[in-house]
Here is the input.
Amino acid sequence: MNETRIVELRRERGWTQEKLADECGVGIRTIQRLEAGSDASLETLSLVADVLGVPVRDLFMTIESDELSGRVDSFESRASDQQAARDRFSGGWFWLFIGVGIVVALLGAAFGQLGSVILVAYWAGGPLIFLALRRLYLDPHLDTKFPLSRSKHDRRLEKRREAKAKSTSSLSPETAANGEPLS
Here is the structure.
């Protein structure tokens, strides 16, 4: 049985087992078994680690099984590789937008006044169109292709959620919900 830090990490955020289960999308019994040190799939451990904002290995104080240690290392390596591939693919999307913009600018110069309208329309509306295409098409496609990775948008939301959780868990009982001391 492996000794976990899940209870400690959960309590640092001021969360109950039920709150952690809801955030992870797993059952409360799963959280209870994990906290007791029972074995779980790497996918479940990954969900918990992502929500707690730590690598899978940091969920454990010690990993007694060499097999589990190897599986965790392999999993973290695959997750890192997939995240890097996803980031490269997303970066290509950005450069595609810039490249199309350059072509539009060159064509705009050839079409005179109509070209100026097209140029302004592209640079004003293009980012919205590319953002919509990214959220509606690209991100779901990348989620399927790289299941161990997350979009930049999701990572930003996670950081905001963590910052909010830290700020609310650091409030003392004498502090109101808005952060002001109670009189």
About this structure: Residues 10 and 20 are 7 Å apart (CA to CA). The radius of gyration is 23 Å. Residues 81-166 form one domain. The chain has two domains: 6-64, 81-166.
